[in-house]
Amino acid sequence: MSLIAIGCDHVGFELKIRIIDHLQSQGHSIKDFGTHSTERTDYPIFGKAVANAVASRECDKGILICGTGVGISIAANKVHGIRAVVCSEPYSALLSRQHNDTNILAFGSRVVGADLAVMIVDAWLSGEFEGGRHKNRVDNIE
Asked: What are phi and psi of 15, to 5 degrees?
């Protein structure tokens, strides 16, 4: 199983707890970069922290949650070596792993409910990078 970094802002806090419980029930280890409450905070802090952990290989993959997933993923994508994707449904999450070798998944707690978020996480984690023609594209991104 993987060591997964997870982070969120105050808007994503409750959904983060649900995702952590789900991941741990599957045998994954979690490194929680916060936030640890619903007290107002700024998502770039947590996007950067998770991205740094993934880019340095301290953690295998990362999951980020804010209101829409957009802001926190933009913050993560500022870190060299990060390919964070925002997904609101499982199909794109799966293909982002298979075709883009994404290493961070982001979604919005105001966009997806808890059950859908779990399905998105499961689809993303099940995907394996296919390489081949996709490797050239990922290399071009880098």
From this structure: -70, -35
Site of tokens 């919005």: 108
pLDDT one-digit tens code per residue, 34-71 = 999 999 999 999 999 999 999 999 999 999 999 999 99
Cβ distance 82 to 54 under 8 Å? yes
The model's pLDDT over 57-110, given as tens digits with 9 standing for 90+, comes to 999 999 999 999 999 999 999 999 999 999 999 999 999 999 999 999 999 999
Range of the domain at 73: 3-141
CATH number at residue 40: 3.40.1400.10
**Domain total in the chain:** 1
- 12 exposed, middle or buried (CB, 10 Å; 0-12, 13-18, 19+)? buried
Q: Which residues are catalytic?
A: 66, 99
Q: Measured between alpha carbons, how far is 13 from 33 in angstroms, rounded to an integer?
A: 11
Closest CA to 35 of 62, 16, 61: 16
Single pTM value for the model: 0.95
